[in-house]
């Protein structure tokens, strides 16, 4: 158990009742953990007997315990385990001229045109402006969505931007150390790296936590280097990788767990 985390041991009578419970929706706890990406069944059994697993706030140490993924909450070392089989989280590569919305009264191409109606109640976590490209995360897990989008957590985001003009390393460093003042206040980059440059353009990688609207374009535009192309390549631990524009993939249990830890779940 992590330092400072207190859990209550599940009474033996309750454990026996759960282990004997013949609910068609319930499955063994170690199988739930294995499916969530915590390793082999044997490793997950060790986690249970070591007292690292809770079900509905109760510490579980008996291997016969069964849980209902639709109704119960499981935590390992205090962090939530995503076990609801109806929950799905996607990584989508948004092309230019696609609206970061599920519907558009003007008839423009939207995220729904890419993912279709396969997933019930799925929604995007954050946006990219109409002319920007790259990674957007989508989910039908309401709790995860709230945490990812909440300003309290300010998930780190990485972009690759093509700028008009040749920017210097000194200017890049100043954007990190001092920042710039925009209409809605001062803003700094966490990192700024020049990847390539020529006389009339510069390719930079920038990292920042802010989720404000068009923030990267506004930062560089304010110092005279308009953004000609902008691609978001990473959100927290989730990377765009080689995902093709206009396509998406389902995040693995390990990826969902790492994203959840990033936002305090």
Work out the strand percent: 25-35%
The CATH H-level homologous superfamily of the largest domain: Pseudouridine synthase I, catalytic domain, N-terminal subdomain
In the CATH scheme, the class of the largest domain would be Alpha Beta
Order of helices and strands: EHEHHEEEEEEHEEHEHEEEEHEEEH
- The coarse silhouette is elongated
The largest sheet is: 9 strands, mixed
Q: Helical content, roughly? A: 10-25%
The chain-level structural class is alpha+beta
What integer value in Å does the Rg equal? Answer: 22 Å
- Taking the alpha carbons of the first and last residues, their distance comes to 16 Å
CATH architectural type of the largest domain: 2-Layer Sandwich
* Total of domains: 3
CATH topology of the largest domain: Alpha-Beta Plaits
Features:
alpha+beta, five-stranded mixed β-sheet, Alpha-Beta Plaits, Structural Genomics Hypothetical 15.5 Kd Protein In mrcA-pckA Intergenic Region, Chain A, 265 residues, Pseudouridine synthase, nine-stranded mixed β-sheet, EC 5.4.99.-, PsdUridine_synth_RsuA/RluB/E/F, S4_RNA-bd_sf
List the helices and strands and how they pair.
Elements (H helix, E strand, L loop, with lengths): L7 E2 L2 H9 L6 E2 H7 L5 H9 L3 E3 L2 E3 L5 E2 L6 E3 L2 E3 L7 E6 L16 H5 L7 E3 L7 E7 L2 H8 L7 E8 L4 H9 L2 E3 L2 E3 L3 E7 L3 E8 L6 H8 L4 E9 L2 E2 L8 E3 L2 H10 L3
Parallel strand pairs: 1-4, 10-16
Antiparallel strand pairs: 2-5, 3-4, 3-6, 6-7, 8-10, 8-18, 9-10, 11-15, 11-16, 12-13, 14-15, 16-17
Helix pairs in contact: 2-3
């Amino acid at each position: 158990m992590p330092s400072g985390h207190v859990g209550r041991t599940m009474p033996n009578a309750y454990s026996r009742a759960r282990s004997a419970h013949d609910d068609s929706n319930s499955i063994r706890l170690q199988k739930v953990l294995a499916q969530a990406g915590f390793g082999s069944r044997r490793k997950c059994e060790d986690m249970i007997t070591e007292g690292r697993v809770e079900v509905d706030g109760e510490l579980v140490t008996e291997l016969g315990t069964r849980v209902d993924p639709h109704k119960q909450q499981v935590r390992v070392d205090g962090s939530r385990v995503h076990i609801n089989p109806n929950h799905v989280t996607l990584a989508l590569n948004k092309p230019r001229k696609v609206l970061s919305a599920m519907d558009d009264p003007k008839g423009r191409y939207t995220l729904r045109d890419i993912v279709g109606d396969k997933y019930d109640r799925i929604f995007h976590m954050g946006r990219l402006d109409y002319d920007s490209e790259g990674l957007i995360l989508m989910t039908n897990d309401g709790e995860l969505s709230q945490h990812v989008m909440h300003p309290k957590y300010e998930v780190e985001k990485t972009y690759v931007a093509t700028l008009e003009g040749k920017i210097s390393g000194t200017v890049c460093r100043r954007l990190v150390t001092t920042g710039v003042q925009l209409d809605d206040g001062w803003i700094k980059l966490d990192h700024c790296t020049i990847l390539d440059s020529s006389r009339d353009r510069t390719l930079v990688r920038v990292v920042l936590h802010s989720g404000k609207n068009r923030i990267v374009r506004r930062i560089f535009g304010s110092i005279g280097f308009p953004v000609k192309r902008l691609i978001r390549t990473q959100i927290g631990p989730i990377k765009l990788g080689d995902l093709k524009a206009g396509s998406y993939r389902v995040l693995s249990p390990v990826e969902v767990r790492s994203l959840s830890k990033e936002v305090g779940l």
